[in-house]
Structure formats: C-alpha cells, structure tokens
Specification:
- The structure is a single chain.
- The protein is α/β, with parallel strands linked by helices and 346 residues long.
- The chain folds into two domains: 170 residues, Rossmann fold (3-Layer(aba) Sandwich); 168 residues, Rossmann fold (3-Layer(aba) Sandwich).
- Helices cover 36% and strands 19% of the residues.
- The strands form two sheets. It has a seven-stranded parallel β-sheet with strand order 3-2-1-4-5-6-7, sandwiched between helices. A six-stranded parallel β-sheet has the order 10-9-8-11-12-13, sandwiched between helices.
- Helix 1 packs across helix 13 and helix 6 crosses helix 11.
- The chain starts with a strand and ends with a helix.
Length: 346
Amino acid sequence: MNLFVRTDASVYIGTGHVARCLTLADEITSRGGNIQFICREEEGNLTGLIERKGYGLHLLPQGIDLAEDRELTKEILGNQSDCPDWLIVDHYDIDILWEAPQREFVRRIMVLDELANREHDADILLDQNYNTEKTRYNRLIPEKCIQLLGSEFAILKSQFRLAREKLRERSGVIKRIMVSMGGTDKKNATSLVLKAFYKMNHFGFDIDVVIGPTCKHRLDIERVTSHIPNTNLHFNVENMADLMAACDLAIGDAGTTTWERCCLGLPTLMVITAENQRTVAEELSKGDFITYVGCYEDTKEDDIVEKITYLINNSKAVKEISVRVKGLVDGNGTKRVVNSIYSCTN
C-alpha cells in the first residue's frame, strides 16, 4: 500500500502534526506500507527528522499560499507511476477546496482534524481529542465518511503502551514534576512555569523540564532552570514515556502530549498556549480530568503557585485524577487507526 502524508511543522504551528504523522507512518510501515511526506520548508520544519527515519520527502517552498500548495501537491501525486492508495492530511489550514482536487490523483483521503470548523472531502476523518459532542462533523464531511472520534484513537508511539504495561501504581503524592509546554513553545510558557517554582521557594520535589528541538528560548530556560534546586533540563527527549512514568504531576499545554500523559495516568496542571487548544482543555476540565489554569496570556505565576500548592496538599484528589485520565487512553489508538485505514482499503 502506498500512502502520501501532507503535513507541516514550523516555529508557528509547532511540531505535533509531523510527530503524530511519523508515529502513524511507523505503524503503517511495520505492516508493509510505503510512506512519502509532502512538507513546506518553513522555519522550524522537521524535514531532517523525516529523512533520517527513512521516509520519502517532497519539499514545497516556504511562504506559498494554499492555491499554489494545492497545485504543487497535485503535481507530485500526478507524477507517481502508481496511483497512491491514500493521501493523509494533517493540517489546520487545509479544507475541502484543497482536498477535493486531489481526488484525481489518489484513491482515498484521510483527514486529521480537531477544530470542526471547516468542510472536508474525506473517506476517513480522525479527531483524537476528547469531546462529548459526537455529531460536530456531520455537516462538514461526506455522508459515507468514517468518523474516528475520541481519545481511544489517540496516535501514540508504542513506547507509551509498553510503559503503561509496567506502570507503577500512583499514590497521589507529588515528589517529581514534569514541565513540558510543547515541542516549540514559541511563547516561552516554560519560563513562566519555572518562575512560579522559583517564587514558591521550592517544596522539596524534583523537576524535569522538557523542551523540543525547535524551541527558540532554550538559553532563557537554561538560565532560569539554573536557579531552581533539583531541576533537570531535557532537550529533544527520546524516552518521553519513561520520563512521564517516573513523574507524579505534569504541567503542560493541550497539545498532542496530552494523550501521552493520559495513557500513563499522569495528572496534569494545564496552561493552554494556543486558542485551538481551548476546547479540549475546557472539555477535559468539565470531566475533571485535568486541573485547568487557563490560557498563557491570562496566567500569572501566582495562579500556578496556587494550583500546585493545592495538588501537593491533596494527594487523594491527585490519585483520583490519575485513575480517571488513565481510563481515557489505553495506548492502542495508533493500531485502531491503521486497522481502519486497511479495512477501508480492502
């Protein structure tokens, strides 16, 4: 089976789209599929990572509009000796006007979305976010489109499923905290959280700070980290599952790592760093799955101090949250998604 993936990473949109597409690609490849990526050369792209993992890569110019993007993608697909079985699209700027013209060159289209704010021409639509509204895409997709909705379809690396199998029982006592505000963290929310720790004058716990390869604030984060005892800075982490499993609380945004934390039953104090994260944060908050602080622009150091202090002093509540979130994601979402792709292909 031959598949193309249209997705991007950049300083502006972050790394999550490419990261989950790579995880999906790894599972498809393990079943004999052939994957090629189509990506723009934007600042902060992950094209080098895609190539190092051995996937074919077609580059689009930086800064082009969607019309040119659409036509260049059609050209790439149309030049294939065999018609691709699937085009997988993971991009918040792309909609039916871009997707429908690709039908001439591919057999089927799968779209990854969480926003439910535009129409799609898709055979499969995946929204891995937790949401109680199950009909939100009905008017936005073809009637026969298969909808994969909910965190049971969360695309996670196999390391999280394996770490879950040997996970220790969480007591709710907080001795180690992870800070991970996304692979790019363009707003430097990490430093805001670290300054809150500094303001607390420390509570005797260990802190693991995780930043990604496209984070531009590394030097500032290193500076702040150096003033906080028992704090370790991790850059471009490969063993994220082991690191999460060892922690008792995470402070993070509502990006793709949300479902990694859930899989490992790791309670989260959440600060959103983009408007498109608001819905999932509010939905999780309503279900008592997270401790929600708010959006980065409205969050003060004292707000974080207050929430952390409450959780430290309420281990029973922390343990209950851990049990609830672990029930949202079992680590088999990637397999479920790929099973659906293959079922729809046959």
